[in-house]
Amino acid sequence: VPEDYATKVADLQSELDRELDVPVGTVTTPLDSRRSSVRTMEATMGNLVADGMRHAVDADVAITNGGGIRADREYEAGHELTRKDVLSELPFGNLTLKLEVTGADIVAALENGLQSFPDATGRFPQVSGLTVVFNPDKPAGERVVSVKVGDADLDPNATYSLATNDYMARGGDGYTMFVGKPNLITLTDAKLMANDVMAYVRQMGEVAPTVEGRITTGM
């Protein structure tokens, strides 16, 4: 990891650590960050994190790895989310990056994320702005049946802006298709994922993530 990167993350982290128990907003639906959920299926905490990242950098879509969501717990509807909650979910000091990718890159990323299903693995994708249908009976690498970006079918040749984390952008968890893609945000402007999620919840005041069919199985 480049030194300026590590230093920046350490500085941002210590800034956040100063006031951990500060509430950022309320979740009006149950939140699920259990390991068994975020690594195998669309999960409410995964949706919240991916939505926060996509919102923060104004990207078309977001993909983040379920293995980066760590608190392994459930929150009741009405829970007041604190900084501490968000930092315990996203403890690695990862930054949100905005990459320029093709539709084909997105499909390749989803194939990578879904290749181990139904085994629980950290690469499993939590997404925002995408509706994905996959067939788990097909061989790994050929499982994605359809992808929509918003309401439109994904175009493999089109260019999209993608919010993801710096670990995946460096090829972590097998996301090698992201390596070397144009980064639309400078390192100086990139923020901690945790910070982006907090800012999103704070701006909304109340959030109500649900499992809404972002990733489903089908033929």
Structure description:
There is one protein chain. Strands 6-11-3-7 form a 4-stranded mixed sheet, with helices on both faces. A 4-stranded mixed sheet has the order 10-9-8-13, covered by helices on one side. The chain is globular. β9 and β10 (about 150-155) form a beta hairpin. The longest helix has 15 residues, at about 5-15. It has about 220 residues and is an alpha/beta fold. About 30% of the residues lie in helices and about 25% in strands. The model has no long low-confidence stretch (mean pLDDT about 95). The N and C termini lie far apart (about 40 Å).
User: Over the alpha carbons, how many angstroms does the gyration radius reach?
Assistant: 16 Å
Low-confidence stretches: none
Strand content: 15-25%
Mean pLDDT: 95
Total beta strand runs:
13
Largest sheet: 4 strands, mixed
Please state the structural category.
alpha/beta
Give the strand order of the largest sheet, numbering strands 1, 2, ... along the chain: 6-11-3-7
Shape: globular
Series of secondary-structure elements, N-terminal to C-terminal: HEEHHEEEHEHEEEEEHHEE
Q: Into which percent range does the helicity of residues fall?
A: 25-40%
**For the terminal residues, how far apart are their CA atoms?**
41 Å
Discrete helix count: 7
Instruction: List the quaternary state of the chains.
Output: single chain
